[in-house]
Amino acid sequence: MAIESEVLVIGGGLGGLTSALAAARDGADVRLVSYKQSTLRQASGLVDVLGYTPDGDGPLTDPYEAIPSLPAEHPYRKVGVGTVRDAMALFDDAVPTYEGEHTDTNALLPTHGGSIKPTARYPAGASAGLASDTRDTLLVGIEEMVDFDAPHVAAHLDATGVPFDVRGETIRFPGDLRADAKVTRYAKLLDTNSEVAVRGRMVPAREALAQRVNPLLEGEERVGFPAILGDDSPAAIRDALGDHLGVDVFEVPMGPPSLPGLRLEDALFAALDEAGVSIETGNPVVDFEGEDRIERVFIEKNGAKIPNSADQYVLATGGFVGKGVESDREGVYEPVFDCHVPHAADRYDWFEGELFGDHEFARYGVATDDDLRPLDASEQSEFENLRAAGSVLGGYDFAAEKSGSGVSIATGYAAGQRAAQEAR
C-alpha cells in the first residue's frame, strides 16, 4: 500500500525545502523525500537574489529592478517579481536570524577569497562585516585553516578599493586542535566554552581566543573571523568575544563545509517540523507510474521499492552538482521522470534563437511553462501534476548571476504554493 500525501516534494535542497514549507503553510498535507543530505551544508549561507545580469553587468544595486529585463526563459521571468518578493518574505519569516529584509538593495559582503559579493540576505553574524561599512577591520585567520589566509584576504579586499583599512593576522587557536582541525570542532569548543590550557592555566575557550587576538589590535573597530563561531549559540559567542575585545565581531562566509549553511539548514528543517511536513531522507526515488499524470513514485529502501502517491508532485532534485541533471555521451537528461532537458542541437529553437555564449552548459536544465510544469520536446506539458523548482531548472546561470539561492526560493515557493492549491 502506498504512502499517501497531498503534495510530494522530491529533493532536500533549498528549492525542495521551500516548496515543502510553502505547500504546508498553504494547508496541504506534505511529504518531502530526499536521497542525499541537503547541499546547504556545502553553501556559504548567503542568500542571493540577483547580483549580476546574464551579460555580466553589476554588481546590481536593486535585483528586483533588473528582473523584468531578464531573458524570457529565466525562472524569475516565469514566476514574476511579485512572487520573488513573496518567496523572500516566506524565507524571512522562517529564518529570522538573517538580515536584509528591510531593503531591496543588495548588501556587499567580503568572502573568504577576498572578493566582494552582492547578496540579498545574510546571517546576522556577518552584518558587522559589510564592505560598505567604513570602520577599519582586522581579519583573524587560524593556522590550521588553510582555506582562510587572513593576510591574503585582507590584501585582496584592499585591492578592490574597500572604504576602510584592513589587515590580516594569523593565530593558533587556543587548545590543541591540530589533530582534529574541523570547522565543527572549533564551533563545538566555542559553543560549550570548554576550558583550554593557556600558559599553564585553564581558561574558557572564548576568553582564550580573545586573549590571542587582543594584542594584535591596532585601533580597529571590528574583527572578522572565519565562520567557526559556534553552531548552537553563535550570537552569544560573538557577543562574548566583542565584550572581551571591545569591538564588533563578525564572521566571513566560508566554503564547504559551511557552518552558516548548516545553521540555515537547521532553521529550515525546524520550520518544516513546525509546519507538520513529513520528511524522509537517505532513500532515492527510482521509478514512477503514470503517463499524462504521475500516479505514484517508488522509493528504494533496503532493497525494496516503496510506493508513494500524491495528488501533486514537485521535482527539486538540484542541478549538475546535486545530480538532479546528469549527462553522458548521448546528451543531458533528468534522471527521475526523464523530463526533457533542451541541449545541443535543439537549444537554439528552445531559447528563441538566442545562444548563450560562454555559459551555455551552465544554463542546461528542465524547461517549463510559466506554471513551472516541465515541457517535452514539442513544448507540451509532460505531466499535468508535476512542477519543477530550484537548480534542476534551465534558463539561467546561477554562478555567473549570483542568483542560485533566490531562484531556488522563488521557484520553490511558487511550485509548492501552486501544488497545494491544486491539491485541494
UniProtKB/TrEMBL annotation:
<dbReference type="InterPro" id="IPR036188">
    <property type="entry name" value="FAD/NAD-bd_sf"/>
</dbReference>
<dbReference type="GO" id="GO:0004368">
    <property type="term" value="F:glycerol-3-phosphate dehydrogenase (quinone) activity"/>
</dbReference>
<dbReference type="InterPro" id="IPR009158">
    <property type="entry name" value="G3P_DH_GlpB_su"/>
</dbReference>
<keyword id="KW-0288">FMN</keyword>
<dbReference type="InterPro" id="IPR050315">
    <property type="entry name" value="FAD-oxidoreductase_2"/>
</dbReference>
<protein>
    <submittedName>
        <fullName>Glycerol-3-phosphate dehydrogenase subunit GlpB</fullName>
        <ecNumber>1.1.5.3</ecNumber>
    </submittedName>
</protein>
<keyword id="KW-0285">Flavoprotein</keyword>
<keyword id="KW-0560">Oxidoreductase</keyword>
<feature type="domain" description="FAD-dependent oxidoreductase 2 FAD-binding">
    <location>
        <begin position="7"/>
        <end position="407"/>
    </location>
</feature>
<dbReference type="InterPro" id="IPR003953">
    <property type="entry name" value="FAD-dep_OxRdtase_2_FAD-bd"/>
</dbReference>
<dbReference type="Pfam" id="PF00890">
    <property type="entry name" value="FAD_binding_2"/>
</dbReference>
<dbReference type="GO" id="GO:0009331">
    <property type="term" value="C:glycerol-3-phosphate dehydrogenase (FAD) complex"/>
</dbReference>
